[in-house]
Design goal:
Order of helices and strands of chain B: EEEHEEHEEHHEHEHEHEEHH
Shape of chain B: globular
Number of domains of chain C: 1
Helix content of chain C: 10-25%
Strand content of chain B: 25-35%
Mean pLDDT of chain C: 83
Strand order of the largest sheet of chain B: 6-9-10-3-11-12
Radius of gyration of chain B: 18 Å
CATH class of chain B: Alpha Beta
Number of helices of chain B: 9
CATH architecture of chain B: 3-Layer(aba) Sandwich
Chains: A alpha/beta, B alpha/beta, C alpha/beta
Oligomer: heterotrimer
CATH topology of chain B: Rossmann fold
Distance between the termini of chain B: 25 Å
């Protein structure tokens, strides 16, 4: 396996810059001039922007510098990861009849994938192999902001591989696509997958990304995902974050969609060390519907930061945003949601909501729902609540013979339920609900439910 | 001279090529009570909105003369000052705006237009109490914000109360009976009956005949598909109740 | 939107300032520029004790360091040229005397100025039960009702007097809530403040009348740096109101005030502001930079601090009247109406820092934007680790009048204790067309209807103002909204 180990004696920035020089020849489409140009520009911007500090508004509550400042190993080529189909079996979602693309340490592994049933004109595979695809030419790097987002610049500079999905015009993909991301790494591996999903006009797709760790190694994944949805198209993107407790990641998603299309994202965070999700969605045409749903179940010392922007650059659109936190132990949740309505983007209906349920003394919440509005004929609102379970409801359930622990558990599930209701795939919502139940404190006495869960999963 | 003369009125929705009223003729004299009945979507409420001057409707043909003048030339508030009152089907809430302030502004602007003096605080309050009683409205509601937190029945009664306060010449009641239970309907109707006079005309817009059990109209018109399909006296309403609107919808309406 | 409404909104947006005249009085003014000598001069001129001069100098050195290190608080949603601290004057006082012992000594021109502003300093204010202090260009010119207040033991005087007459109290509390290290402008104020108001309410006393200070910038190119300190001893109550105006000046003027409130056990301070500094021309020239630091501490259990503000003036406003809820069961409130039009920019809100147990805060903010203005709410609700059972409710509503302005909401919520219940709601909308139509149908014209609806939008806040000022506030809002026809 060829790797570059970062020289920790140097400043963080310099380490990456010298690794960039070494990495040069291994990059994605090394011969493609436009990709190479983006890479050069990106490393330049990375140097100029520097590592974000907590003095920067966008990183006020998440110390990413200390995550970046580790002696990472940068893989230069695909590693010989020892992963077999049997290893993955437990993680395929039962009752989910899906096309499966397996990514090991950020790179597609077609031998482990199940893509036989894929309609011929749909492409699901490796970004590395997509260089000549017209959709790659048209969309790669067009939405990801490598100019102002330092982690996106870093990813763009080191881009090697990731998932590429292309659904042509008028094709409605019946089965969802499951991207199974598994970490099978040694300690301190830094992965920078780059994904591109293109759903053309009048096409429809549902993509589920599930992130797991097989080895329990300490890793850092810096992912960039670009999404494009053409006119009247539909893309529903789920991400289920279940990496190990010492895996950190920054997941930056940039979605751009045209008139009369629907772009929905659902982000479920159940584990991880430091998890930062950046999301920028841009509905650029009339009658777009943009949805952002998220659920964080915090436990241990997890730190989860969801940073979202809905950029209303076009009039006559609707956006809905709902993020919920359930926090236990010493976990921390950050929510920074921004709705931006540009001048002349009239008749926008934008709703944003963030609710937190705090179960433990040491858990912390930082929430900052923002509205920045320059058009007058709009209906925008946001709301945020932080609190505990409704004692009246606990009492009412007890009077019906439900013990207190179960009452609390059920109410907690109900709190999360509002997000789960938005999930259109039953197999996913069941899976997620059980994951929620499994992550709740033991005192909640959900063993029955969790046992059912493992029985179902077996 | 008739109070209101609607002639060959054609109305479309702004921005859309849909014609809602397709040649309405209607004459109302002072002191008369007219009822317009019709199925949903026939254009009844559009007629009410056009009389009040709602902007999203465009008159493409025909005319409306009120007291001999061209009503369409007047702004919304000028029509109100001239004595046109619309009781809304869905009264609007004005958060934080107290009924008292709202009514004082409204009453005084209408009075000023009529060449009357502004009402002083004491006289105003006296009038409020007197007229609130007329529609059995809890005078305490007057201390609240306009329509905010009012029940459906309270909102409708509040409309009739404002009618009583503003003393219009032509009162248009747009489905005032919808959503009212039988007691509330009776209260509202009693209020309207008390306000009937030789100088004041009413145009009742309703889907159901039951309102007309309480407010007896002089004339009943059936509106179907943007036209008045038939006119008659109150017996027409009873016949409609028995036969439904289907007969009119099947036959092409007389031009 | 109908044409008439558009026209009306344009008129609203272009409405001229009506307090723009200047009084011709002789004043003693320092030249432009700032150095240690200026600080010393101000202190000497005010006959200050040595410790206060030392404090000023420390603040000045801290300020210099902040300027050198470039620690300018530029994180707000505001776009303006930073003031040149060497290109303004730091002291200007009506020439004859730095302070007056009775009204008889106050020159007629000054009295007329305040008369014209609708602030009669005469005893006729007795009828409304308001004691008034007036500060023109940094110097307190008159304080009424001293005697009556003295009977109750209430001290209400200019800051300068207080530093001389009650040094022990001033020394104890000065900088306690807003230390000079708080931010660059707090440091600047601490170095060069020239006057302001001082209020001390002894234990168990309910201040018998509203206290009011009227601030007026008169001189050109003079910064105004007043300092207000209010101390409410246990079980006392005081309601205080400040109002401000300034003449039209081509250049921007800086107003960097500091207000500190201390409420002891069971005490309550109600602080209201009607801010109407000169906002600049309709093209955005001139106008006051209103960059102030206001903070109160609920020191004792069951104490309460309530801020109410009506912000209509200034070219740029950056202020966050805040409450530190240290005492158990203490209560903090913030009620605000911010109206911006023309080229005005406001970034205002509050901080509620919950430290004690069972503390409660309420934030109601109403922003109205017209013209090409930008109006932002920025607020922080922070619940400390040991702040059991903290409660907060926040509501921020924005109203946009016209399609060239902006309305923004930046709430920060930081929760470190799970027993906290925090709710935040915000909406942004324009005046509903159905609302306008409803009003028109009842005979109201554009202007009347809009006034009524905007007033309704602000009603919750205006209701918080002391009655005498609620009327004034409503009139001010009405004037702000008035078109050229009015």
């Amino acid at each position: 396996m060829s790797t570059t180990t970062l020289d920790t004696s140097a400043q963080t920035i310099d380490r990456f810059v010298s690794a960039f020089q070494v990495n040069h020849g291994q990059a994605l489409n090394g011969t493609n001039a436009s990709v190479a140009k983006r890479r050069e520009a990106a490393i330049q911007r990375f140097q100029e922007l520097g590592v974000p500090t907590r003095k920067q508004e966008a990183w006020k509550y998440t110390d990413i510098a200390s995550v970046l400042d580790r002696p990472y190993t940068l893989p230069l080529g695909p590693e010989e990861a020892d992963v077999s189909a049997a290893d993955l079996d437990p993680y395929l979602i039962d009752d989910l009849d899906a096309h499966v693309l397996v990514l090991v340490n950020g790179r597609p592994d077609l031998s482990l994938s199940q893509l036989d049933a894929m309609p011929e004109d749909v492409t699901v595979g490796s970004l590395k192999d997509a260089g000549d695809h017209p959709a790659f030419e048209a969309h790669y790097g067009e939405y990801a902001d490598a100019e102002d987002e330092v982690l996106t610049a870093l990813n763009t500079a080191f881009v090697q591989d990731g998932a590429f999905i292309h659904v042509p015009e008028d094709v409605e993909l019946e089965q969802p696509i499951l991207l199974l991301h598994v970490n099978a790494a040694q300690d301190d591996l830094l992965m920078q997958p780059r994904h591109l999903f293109v759903v053309e006009a009048d096409a429809k797709a549902r993509v589920i990304g599930r992130q797991l760790s097989l080895t329990g190694a300490r890793t850092f994944t810096n992912t960039v995902t670009e999404m494009f949805v053409g006119e009247r198209g539909y893309l529903d993107h789920y991400v289920i974050q279940e990496e190990d407790d010492n895996a950190s990641q920054v997941l930056s998603r940039f979605g751009y969609h045209e008139g009369d299309s629907v772009l929905s994202t659902d982000t479920f965070t159940f584990s991880g060390e430091v998890v930062r999700n950046n999301m920028t969605l841009t509905p650029d045409g009339p009658n777009c519907e943009t949805n952002l749903y998220g659920l964080v179940i915090g436990h241990g010392s997890m730190h989860v930061d969801n940073n979202t922007l809905v950029d209303h650059v076009h009039a006559d659109c609707v956006s809905n945003e709902l993020y919920k936190h359930v926090l236990n132990d010493q976990s921390t949740a950050v929510f920074n949601g921004k709705v931006f309505v540009h001048r002349d983007s009239q008749r926008i209906d934008a709703y944003q909501s963030n609710d937190s349920l705090v179960l433990n003394n040491d858990a912390q919440i930082y929430t900052k729902p923002e509205l920045e509005i320059y058009a007058d004929d709009v209906k925008c609102s946001h709301g945020t609540t932080t609190g505990q379970l409704d004692e009246e409801a606990v009492y009412a359930m007890r009077t019906r013979g439900i013990d207190e622990a179960t009452a609390r558990a059920l109410l907690t599930l109900a709190f999360a339920g509002e997000v789960l209701e938005q999930v259109t795939l039953d197999a996913i919502s069941e899976r997620v609900e059980l994951a929620v139940a499994g992550k709740l404190p033991e005192r909640f006495n959900l063993t029955g439910l969790v046992e059912t869960a493992s029985a179902l999963n077996a | 001279m008739a109070l209101l003369e609607v002639e060959n009125l054609h109305v479309s929705v702004e921005d859309e090529d849909i014609e809602i009223l397709k040649g309405v003729d209607l004459t109302i004299n002072e002191g008369e009570v007219h009822a317009i009945m019709g199925p949903n979507g026939s254009g009844k409420s559009t007629l009410a909105a056009v009389l009040a001057g709602r902007e999203e409707y465009v008159v493409t043909e025909g005319s409306i003369r009120y007291k001999g003048e061209d009503l369409l030339e007047l702004e919304v508030e000028e029509r109100a000052e001239e004595g046109v009152f619309l009781a809304f089907q869905y009264p609007v809430e004005l958060p934080g705006v107290s009924m008292t302030n709202f009514l004082r502004e409204a009453v005084n602007s209408v009075r000023e237009a009529r060449g009357e003096e502004e009402l002083g605080a004491a006289d105003f309050l006296k009038l409020v109490r007197e007229r609130a009683k007329l529609v059995d409205l809890d005078p305490d509601l007057v201390k609240r914000s306009v329509n905010q937190g009012f029940s459906g029945g309270e909102k409708k009664r509040n409309e009739i109360f404002q009618l009583a306060m503003l003393e219009p010449t032509l009162a248009v009641l747009d489905e005032t009976d919808s959503g009212l239970d039988i007691d509330a309907l009776r209260t509202v109707s009693d209020g309207v009956n008390k306000l009937r006079s030789d100088e004041r005309a009413f145009l009742l817009i309703t889907h159901y005949q039951r309102l007309l059990d309480y407010i007896e109209p002089d004339y009943v018109h059936v509106m179907v598909n943007g036209r008045i399909a038939e006119s008659g006296d109150k017996d027409l309403a009873i016949r409609l109740e028995e036969e439904g609107y289907e007969r009119f919808q099947r036959e092409p309406a007389a031009a | 939107m109908s044409t008439s409404e558009t026209e009306y909104l344009e008129n609203v947006a272009n409405q001229e300032y009506e307090h723009g005249w200047r009084t011709d009085i002789e004043s003693e003014t320092l030249p432009e520029g700032l150095d240690e000598n200026i600080v010393r001069y101000i202190s000497e001129r005010k006959d200050e004790p040595e410790w206060l001069l030392e404090w000023r100098l420390k603040a000045f050195r801290y300020f210099e360091r902040q300027v050198e290190e470039g620690n300018y608080p530029d994180w707000a949603h505001l776009d303006y040229e930073r003031p040149d601290f060497q290109d303004m004057r730091y002291f200007s006082a009506p020439k004859e005397k730095a302070s007056y012992d009775s009204l008889d000594e106050v020159p007629d021109e000054i009295l007329e100025t305040f008369e014209r502003l609708g602030i009669p300093l005469e005893e006729q204010k007795a009828l409304t039960g308001v004691a008034v202090d007036a500060v023109m260009d940094s110097v307190s010119v008159a304080t009424t009702f001293k005697k009556k207040l003295k009977e109750k033991g209430v001290i209400f005087m200019s800051f300068g007097e207080a530093a001389r007459e009650h040094p022990e109290i001033v020394k104890k509390y000065l900088g306690r809530v807003v230390p000079y290290t708080d931010n660059l402008f707090a440091a600047l104020n601490s170095a060069v403040f020239s006057d302001g108001s001082f209020v001390y309410v002894p234990e168990g006393v309910t201040c018998p009348m509203e206290l009011s200070t009227y601030f007026r910038i008169n001189d050109q190119n003079t910064g105004q740096f007043e300092r207000t300190l209010i101390i409410a001893e246990p079980d006392s109550y005081v309601s205080y109101l400040e109002g401000c105006t300034a003449p039209m000046n081509q250049k921007h003027q800086l107003h960097a005030a500091v207000v500190e409130l201390i409420a002891h056990e069971d005490a309550e301070i109600k602080y209201s502001t009607i801010q109407n500094w000169y906002p600049g021309t309709k093209d955005g020239e001139g106008g006051v930079y209103n960059l102030v630091t206001k903070r109160g501490i609920c020191e004792g259990d069951r104490s309460k601090i309530s801020w109410t503000q009506l912000e209509t003036g200034s070219a740029v406003t950056q202020k966050y009247p805040s409450v530190i809820l240290k005492g158990d069961e203490s209560v903090g409130e913030f009620y605000s109406v911010a109206f911006t039009k023309g080229h005005q920019q406001a970034d205002t809100g509050t901080k509620m820092h919950h430290i004690g147990k069972n503390t409660k805060s309420t934030i109601i903010s109403k922003g109205i934007s017209a013209g090409v203005s930008n109006n932002s709410y920025r607020g922080l609700v922070k619940v400390g680790k040991n702040a059991e059972n903290a409660r907060n409710f926040s509501q921020c509503d924005s109203l946009l009048l016209g399609d060239q302005c902006g309305a923004h909401t930046f709430p920060y919520i930081e929760i470190g204790n799970p027993s906290a219940k925090v709710e935040h709601e915000a909406t942004t909308s324009k005046v509903g067309e159905d609302q306008m139509f409803y009003c028109h149908q009842r005979g109201l014209g554009e202007e009347e209807a809009l006034k009524l609806i905007v007033n309704g939008f602000c009603q919750e806040i205006l209701a918080e103002l002391p009655m005498e000022f609620a009327v004034e506030a409503k009139e001010l809002l009405a004037i702000e909204l008035e078109g050229s026809v009015g």
